[in-house]
Specification:
The two termini are 15 Å apart. Helices cover 69% and strands 0% of the residues. α3 crosses α7 (103-125) and α4 runs antiparallel to α7. The protein has seven helices and no strands.
Length: 137
C-alpha cells in the first residue's frame, strides 16, 4: 500500500490548484477528472467556505446546472446570495460552459458542485487541529 500523502494546508492547496483550469478540462477530458474531483473540489470548497457560502446554496446551483445547463446557471444575476462568492462561482460556471457543452459534461459539473458542497459541510462539522503535527498517523 502506498504511503499516505503529506498533509497540506488550505493555502498550499489553493496556491497549487487552478479551479478554473480544472473545470475547463476536467469536465471533458478523462485525464483531468481525478484532479478536478480531488484537489479541484478541495480548492473550490476552501475558496467558497472562506467566502461564507452555505452548502445548500451550492446544491441549489448544482440543480440549476443539471436542469438548465452551465451557460444558463452562469447567466443567473445572483447564483449565490452574496456578491463576492457569486462572482467567483459565475467565473467558474462561465469557463466550464465554454468547453462542457454535452449533457454528460454538464451532469458532471453538477456532481462536482455537489461534491464541493459536501466538502464545505464537512469542513464546518469536523474539528481540525490548528497544528498539522496534531493530525493522527
Amino acid at each position: 500500500m502506498p504511503p499516505a500523502p503529506d498533509s497540506r494546508s488550505d493555502d498550499e492547496v489553493l496556491a497549487a490548484t487552478d479551479v478554473t483550469v480544472l473545470l475547463r478540462y476536467g469536465l471533458t477530458q478523462d485525464a483531468f477528472r481525478t484532479a478536478l474531483f480531488g484537489d479541484g473540489a478541495v480548492a473550490g470548497a476552501v475558496t467558497l467556505d472562506r467566502l461564507g457560502v452555505l452548502p445548500r446554496s451550492l446544491v441549489f446551483v448544482a440543480e440549476i446546472v443539471r436542469a438548465g445547463g452551465l451557460a444558463y446557471a452562469a447567466e443567473l444575476p445572483e447564483p449565490l446570495p452574496d456578491p463576492e462568492p457569486a462572482a467567483v462561482l459565475r467565473d467558474w460556471l462561465t469557463e466550464a460552459a465554454r468547453t462542457a457543452t454535452s449533457p454528460e459534461a454538464e451532469a458532471l459539473a453538477a456532481r462536482w458542485l455537489k461534491a464541493v458542497a459536501e466538502l464545505i459541510a464537512l469542513r464546518r462539522t469536523t474539528p481540525t487541529p490548528q497544528n498539522p503535527a496534531e493530525l493522527p498517523d
